[in-house]
Amino acid sequence: MCGIIGYIGKKNVDSVLIVGLEKLEYRGYDSAGIAILSDNGIYLKKKKGRISDLAQALNGTPLKARVGIGHTRWATHGKPNDINAHPHIDCKKNFAVVHNGVIENFERIRKNLIKKGHRFLSETDTEIIPHLLEENYKGDLLSAVLKVIKELKGSFALAIISKYHPDKIIGVRKGSPLVIGVGEKENLLASDIPAILSHTRKIISMHDGEIAVIEKEKVKVYNFSGKEKRKKVRYVDWEEDMIEKSGYAHFMLKEIHEQPRVIEENLERIILNGKISIQNNEFLKLFEDKTHIIFQAAGTSFHATLYAKYIFEKYLKLFIESDLSSEFRYREPLIARNSIMIAVSQSGETADTLEGIRLAKRKKIPVISLVNVKGSTIDRESNHTIYINAGPEIGVASTKAYTAQLLYLLLLCMLLSHKKRKVTKKFIKDTLKELFTLPDKIRYILGKEEEIAGIARKYYTFNNALFLGRGLNYVTALEGALKLKEISYIHATGYAAGEMKHGPIALIDENWPVVNICTKNYLYPKMISNIMEVKARDGIIIAVTNPPVAGLKEIADEIISIPKTSLILEPILTIIPLQLLAYHIALLRGCDVDKPRNLAKSVTVE
Length: 606
Ligand code: AGP
Prior knowledge:
The chain is an alpha/beta fold.
């Protein structure tokens, strides 16, 4: 996900673009750039790093210009660096383009353009667009753009300027968002409303298959056949700060609700004709002859590796270890020669996890990492990186990155178990089929938000909580407890339910809400006995389960029923109600949900 912006009007365009990009930084922040139409053509400035770095690079360059486009990047093709940053230009610098989305057929087009003599500077998919414009421009910019977009497959929101037409910006929308801001003697294009709001509240929402020609005092919208369309101008009365969260009160809530789309987009990206293809699966050769896999991570990412431990052991029949990075790196671990490490980190900057990787590499162990942030230190220092493509996760409490980690760990497990002939083709087929039902099942659970908020209202004043589960539900118990503790400051603990008699049951009385993740699997009868033990000591029973719930009605104080799915996919569903429960309890306790006290989004120090 990237952020794009375009401006034409009476203001100094560079400051409009920089401020607008800052409002879009949540969409991507590994590099940024602007292109401005000045009297001597297109002025281009772009840099790896944050928008503040770009602003610094612009400092002192007086740009008396009124037309321009800008971009803040979330790398999909090509590492984050100055060259790969947008905007991109053609050979003669007559066209500049910014893009949000993925052009799926760019390699073939790039090869053809190179054959025609075009010189490419970057590794990006986007760069083919200005060169295609150079090929197709015959005097009219709109006709050239209409021709070019017909050649593109994939998703693209574009903003385009040309030296030949200093009086206009062209916007294109297909599969990625784009809105128009209608001002007084000025007009804008942007990926999202926040970038527009300080100039105007009059908005035209573009739909897929539309192309806009934006001039200083005129906006026209066409379909991809060039037929003009009448578009409604609507007035946006959101508070500016709300907008960055697309109308959600907090980034955490927005990111909880983004999970169906993140799962959907990743499935569409990596399941092609029933086959799993993660970056062409070339990295699988690193697993040949390996008998031991060492997972290491911190916090929520560590919980994801516990999930991996269960399923990798079960389906790969290899020796699997999962360790806290902070323990692993100081433990002088005994590492078998034919081991491989898998490090998991949303930020790709967690110091302990990074040191765990360095330890493995000192022992000549190959390292594969799962990260969300491209170009992060862990990304750069690993032998291979699998990107979980969850989009920027701003809330300190990890939500959409966690379920994306579970997804990729599951798919990696399926890939390896299939390659090692440990599972049948039918098992893979059935699992993939069930995976595609998850986004709607998550939406169903998100639809219960008000019901879950009602439970939060009943228990937010308690200062303790216990989360219990068995097997994969134990992993969810740990993660659910972490969510609650880190944003509501309640002393919440996750425990293996089978451990109750070994200590925790001493805690239980009427002051203890106990969240039981008790989906109907082979361990359900055991869970019921544990729930009865808690009940017998007046503990409050909150059950996360799936239908039928009849048997639980007599013993549970609260039941959150979620859709059934296959056993190994349950953790992607069971965590959703617990994320919402933690969010609403923290809200009721007046906590800063997105920036909880004492915490940071990425722990880059020990
Ligand atoms: C999770 O909600 C926390 N924010 C924290 O435990 C986090 O998972 C941990 O710091 C690891 O971060 P990473 O995934 O970026 O390495």
